[in-house]
Amino acid sequence: MNFWNMLAELLKGLTVSVEIFALTLVFSLPLGLVIALGRMSKNVLIKNIFRIYISIMRGTPLMLQLFVWYFGPYYLFKISLSDLSFLGIEYRFTSVIIGFSLNYAAYFAEIYRAGIESIPKGQYEAACVLGYSPVQTFGKIIFPQVIKRIIPPVTNEVITLVKDTSLAFSLSVLEMFTIAKQISSAYTTMVPFAVAGLFYYIFNFAVAAGMEFVEKKLNYYR
Amino acid sequence: MPVFQIAHLSKSFKDLQVLKDISMEVCQGEVVAIIGPSGSGKSTLLRCATFLETMDRGTLSYGNIAAVTCDEQGNSIYASPEILKKARGQFGLVFQNFNLFPHYSVLKNITDAPVSVQKRKEKEVREEAKILLRKMGLSGRENAYPFQLSGGQQQRVSIARALAMKPDILFFDEPTSALDPELTGEILKVIRDLAAEHMTMVIVTHEIDFARKVADRIIFMADGLIVEEGDAETLVSHPRNERTKAFLANLHSPDETAVPR
User: Across the interface, do B52 and A129 touch by the CB < 8 Å criterion?
Assistant: First the structure.
């Protein structure tokens, strides 16, 4: 296999990695906020359900969770989803998105919670006295300030996610790392790993630059 | 009819009773100062009046809006959310720490609540906000953000923010306590100007000299009780109660380390 063919294969894999990355963010960022609000609920039952959820998601390996989502339906309930494709997407890929989204949402939830709890009580009190409804208070006053504060830890998670997409290799999803491994074994060469490594680095460089841009944009206030 | 009326208010935090059977009323155009040692319940009284704390016992009303009534045992019963919302529209509160919204410009801090809470026209609110800013000596700072302003300027913005809601009564919770001593004067001047315009105000303060000059009436509180109240000048120069005397003497004693500003 010549270098250019290899490069083309890896780039094809990279698009799948980017899909996993983007879809995970699309689902886990909003879900994380819901989990954070549940975790902060005054209702003890709801609070503890979300606390346990976060504990499990953070306390077990993501790869193991991917196996549970992929194999669980059949092993546990004898439901075969493996052949099922939804809108042309096979379950192998769907289970990766489910696993990643639910796992990352737990981490994002704790970041949101830290951000929300760091906003001074006076902000809520000022909003309350001015007559803002609870929804307005959160949406207009609290959450915009939370976003500014959580950008650095969110950047950390997003960068980790770029690298974690390679875990989809465990379910043989044809993302970049899986393809690099296949080519490497077939041709006994390290080159695909080196190239894949470079791609991951460039990907993360762009992510970090993007987040820095957002951070600068929000620097108009303190 | 008084603009603001509170009767037999009691409030406890766990086992500590911080307010004991407080009754007071404020009439249209009146300026009332509340003084007293720290821990006397002044701020809690203000926080109960503005619904930031819930009352245990007693009643509260703004004009003819009965926001809190009580049962036969005197336990407070809060009115429906709609009535409380209406009551909230009657007062403004200026905080010790300003509590401006840091992500909003000065102008937006002032205009956002009138527009999004009171649903008034943005253009009209904007014009009023500019007039308020001129009154506060902050013309030209419309587009600044709170962090770019001094403490005194921030506090003046927060006063403008409260006034933009057109309240019937304005509460101040130690409005100069978080400021450098040289910045307190500008806030006190603003309050004096408002008093001259007959704005109804209740001011919790440590500035006794200021209270004497600007207030019509002073309430002296200690240990959750109203110990003495009366005409501002008389209360400061001829206090009757021993505790009031001790408090004022302490403030004026020259060898005190805590020199009054």
Answer: yes
CATH of the domain at A48: 1.10.3720.10
Reported ipTM? 0.91
**In a domain? residue B152:** yes
CA distance B186 to B176: 9
For B35-83, what is each residue's pLDDT tens digit? Answer: 999 889 999 999 999 999 999 999 999 999 999 999 999 999 999 999 9
Residue B112 resides in a domain: yes
- As for how many domains chain A has, the answer is 1
For residue A198, the number of C-alpha atoms closer than 13 Å in the C-beta half-sphere is 9
- Chain A CB contacts of B81 under 8 Å are none
Coil/strand/helix, residue A188? coil
Which residues of chain A does B99 touch, with a Cβ-Cβ cutoff of 8 Å?
Answer: 120, 122-123, 125-126
Least CB-CB distance to B102: which of A129, A136, A221?
A: A221
Kindly report which listed range (A127-131, B156-160, B248-252) carries the lowest average pLDDT score: B248-252
- Domain residue limits at B121: 98-166
Quote the minimal CA–CA distance from B61 to chain A in Å: 16
Chain A partners of B161 at a C-beta cutoff of 8 Å?
A: 130
Give the pTM. 0.89
Supply the range of the domain harboring residue A23: 3-220
Cα B105 to chain center, whole Å?
24
Residue B84: inside a domain: no
pLDDT one-digit tens code per residue, B205-245: 988 988 998 999 999 999 999 999 999 999 999 999 999 99
Count how many domains chain B has.
Answer: 1
Please name which of B151, A107, B247 lies closest in space to residue B256, comparing C-alpha atoms.
Answer: B247
Write out pLDDT tens, residues A21-34: 999 999 999 999 99
Q: Does any CB of chain B come closer than 8 Å to the CB of residue A59?
A: no
Judge whether A128 is closer than 8 Å to chain B, CB to CB.
yes
Q: Assess if residue B62 is contained within a domain.
A: no
- Give the list of residues 6+ apart from residue B36 with CB closer than 8 angstroms, or none: B42, B220, B221, B222, B227, B247
In angstroms and rounded to an integer, the radius of gyration of the C-alpha atoms of chain A is: 21
